[in-house]
Structure formats: structure tokens, C-alpha cells
Amino acid sequence: MIHARLELFSESLGMCTSVTVLLPQKTTGQIGMAGATSDGKPPVLWLLHGGSDDDTIWLRRTSIERYAAEYGIAVIMPQAALSFYCDEVHGQKWWTWISEELPAILADTFQLSQRREETFVAGLSMGGFGAFKLALNQPGRFAAAASLSGALWSLSPELKERLSERFHHVWGDEGLVEGGPDDLVGLLNTVDKQALPKLWTTCGTEDFLFEDNLVFEKAAAEAGAPLEIEHRPGEHEWGYWDQAIQDVLAWLPIEKAAGTH
Fold first, then answer.
1. Other CB atoms closer than 10 Å to residue 219's CB: what's the count?
2. Which residues pair with 15 in a beta bridge?
């Protein structure tokens, strides 16, 4: 895999920021590492970080580079601070950056597939919220979306208490508006179910966000939104997510790339 960390200017943020990119590279002599590519432009997984981390964290805490190499898939890991992937009331326009500006920049910079059936998104914790927010607001862009221990019900009293100051920074005095672009449950009820990407969620049964995930899963069932669910023992920690991201890659509608060895 080609690993690049890009420092670039964002018009929507009004400042420089970063994004980490993995690109497929066909290799034949690399010890202990598969190298594979597909014909044409590679499929793309947007992989989102959680609230305490940045765009480097997936590489630092998991073997995502090794896992992704087997599928010949590009992985885009953008910086999003502690924004909940929103245009913050008292901050910057992270949603505009990640949903509009950055995809356009990367499309001009790299040879990546732009086809819906080859574009996916996943994330953990805050990034799980971001992944489903992207999928539900832009269903025509993604073929599949996965949430790993996601903060999927952001009106949760426990989550509000843990992040009260941050919630005010992101959503202001009004808070998260029901029926708005950040209301995942509301979006489940309004989006065209036939247009939805494949949705998959996992959360450890000992995770502090487990009950929030159950609320979202119930809402999805009531809305008639297809959602694949996996529960297994686990907490809010990287051992769980390292295994889960392997499960996500196996679940995506792509095959392992030719040339894997």
C-alpha cells in the first residue's frame, strides 16, 4: 500500500488540515504483506475516527493497511477534530469539508473510483455517527455504511452529560435539532428506503454506548430501514475495533483483489 498523509488548505474550514490516505500498490517481493490491485480505479472506503483521535489513529491502533491491501481498496481517513462531523455553531464547517470539499479535491488528485457501488464509509464511536450521517444524508454516494460502537443516538442523556461543553460548541443553545441533518433517527423515517446503502452496525455488549445502539436499532426496525446488526462481548476499545474493521471489509460488496498472495 502507498501511505500518504496530506497537509492541505480547506476553503470551508479557512485553515490547513490533514487527511491520511492508503492507496493500493501491487507488490511481489514484500515480506509478510499482500499487495494487490484491481483493474481500473480502486474502490474507496472513507474511514472516520472517534472523538478523542485524529486521522492517524486507525493506522496507529489497527492493521488497517494490511487488511485493506488484500482487497485492493483505497482508504481515506480525514481529520475531523471533535466536530461530530458537523458544521459547528461555534466552530468550523467540518461537515462541508468532509462531505463536499475534500471528496472533490481527492477526485482531482488521485485515480479513485467515483462509482456509488465502489464507495463506502465506516467509522467508530463519533465516526460511527459520522458514517451513518453521510450515508443517510447522501445515500446516492455510498453503497454501504458501517458503524463500530457508534454514538448513534446523540440525544442520549448520558452522552450529553459526558460531552456537554462539546455539544454546545457543535450545536449551540438549541442543541441537536430533531428532523435536521444530524438527527439519525429522524433521517431513518424520511429517507427513501429503496435508495439506502447497505447498513451494518456492531457494538460490544459492555460498551457504554450499547444502549444507545439498541435505541437506534429499534428505530431502524420501526422505520423499515434494513440494518444488519452484530452484538458480541466487548467494550469501547481498540481490540474490539481491530476485529470489527476486518469484519467490515469482509462484509463490503467487493472481492479480494487479484494478485493477493
1. 18
2. 10
Question: 243 near 253, Cβ under 8 Å?
Answer: no
Lowest mean pLDDT among 19-33, 87-101, 184-198: 19-33
Return the number of other C-beta atoms located less than 10 Å from residue 120's C-beta: 29
φ and ψ at residue 185, rounded to 5 degrees:
-65, -40
Exposed / middle / buried, residue 178 (Cβ in 10 Å: 0-12, 13-18, 19+): exposed
Q: What is the dihedral of CA 194, 196, 157, 149, to 10 degrees?
A: 130
- Is the separation of the CB atoms in 202 and 230 below 8 Å? yes
Block residue for cell numbers 472506503? 45
The whole-model pTM stands at 0.93
Q: How far apart are CA 145 and CA 35, in angstroms?
A: 25
- Residue 125: all three cell numbers together: 464511536
DSSP string, 181-229: TT-HHHHHHHS-GGGPPEEEEEEETTSTTHHHHHHHHHHHHHHT---EE
Residues in the chain: 261
Instruction: Judge whether 147 and 134 are in contact, CB under 8 Å.
Output: no
Q: Which helix (H) or strand (E) holds 170?
A: helix 164-171
pLDDT-derived band at 261 (thresholds 50, 70, 90) equals very low
230-251 residue pLDDT tens: 999 999 999 999 999 999 999 9
